Amino acid sequence: MAEQLTALSIMQDAPVIPVIVLRDVNHAVSMAKALVAGGIRVLEVTLRTPQGLPCIEAIAKAVPEAIVGAGTVRNAADARAAASAGARFAVSPGYTTSVGDACREAGLPLLPGVATSSEIMQAQQDGFNELKFFPAVQAGGINMLKAWQGPFAEVRFCPTGGITPTNAPEFLALKNVVCVGGSWLVPTDTLERGDWEHITLLAREAAALARKD
């Protein structure tokens, strides 16, 4: 029986959630196995390409030890399609009540994207306290997250956008950050080469990043 997931448990699984853009379904399963081998099992496969949904479906069927979710969920139809493909959580670049409702109806824990205080308040009004800060670096980065610690002390964030292995530890040191999202774990050229050992190495390094308890 699949474990019961919440947005918080997804964020707590590892210090980094890889943000994955796939253009070839044939890469999906090997890539997922490589990430899991390195200690990263929560995988955000974005819906930025037509291959996103088929890749989610392939990973859900062939790599049960992975927790595969859909990123770039922008509307209710995306949420329903992601759930049908086997996604176990959803991540959105922004937030609307219709996306929140659709994810609840589909049984998908959601990490809603926010970039302003008003968006945080809207997400909280709809019952979401675990949020994706996107685009993190461009929208104020560490200083913005520190500023939010006062008025939104109960909110926990997954900053995504501009996060690198170099600045990730600075974000993870903040008390309101549980994990970060990063695309560096699955470089395009590495995918194209099929260098799964390198992806496992990147995953192992990411899984070892320290974060605040």
Can you characterise this structure?
This is 2-dehydro-3-deoxy-phosphogluconate aldolase. With 213 residues, the chain is of the alpha/beta class. Helices cover 42% and strands 15% of the residues. It contains 10 helices and 9 strands. It has helices spanning 7-12, 25-37, 52-62, 76-85, 97-106, 117-125, 141-148, 168-172, 188-193, 196-207; strands spanning 16-20, 42-46, 67-71, 90-91, 110-111, 113-114, 130-133, 156-159, 180-182. The strands form 3 sheets. Strands 3-2-1-9 form a 4-stranded parallel beta sheet. Helix 2 (25-37) crosses helix 3. The model has no long low-confidence stretch (mean pLDDT 97).
Q: What is the CATH top level name? A: Alpha Beta
| Domain module tally | 1
Beta-strand residue percentage? 15-25%
- What is the mean pLDDT? 97
Could you provide a short overview of the structure?
Helices cover 42% and strands 15% of the residues. With 213 residues, the chain is of the alpha/beta class.
Task: Itemize the secondary structure elements and their pairings.
Layout: H1 7-12, E1 16-20, H2 25-37, E2 42-46, H3 52-62, E3 67-71, H4 76-85, E4 90-91, H5 97-106, E5 110-111, E6 113-114, H6 117-125, E7 130-133, H7 141-148, E8 156-159, H8 168-172, E9 180-182, H9 188-193, H10 196-207
What brief labels describe this structure?
213 residues, alpha/beta, TIM Barrel, four-stranded parallel beta sheet, three-stranded parallel beta sheet
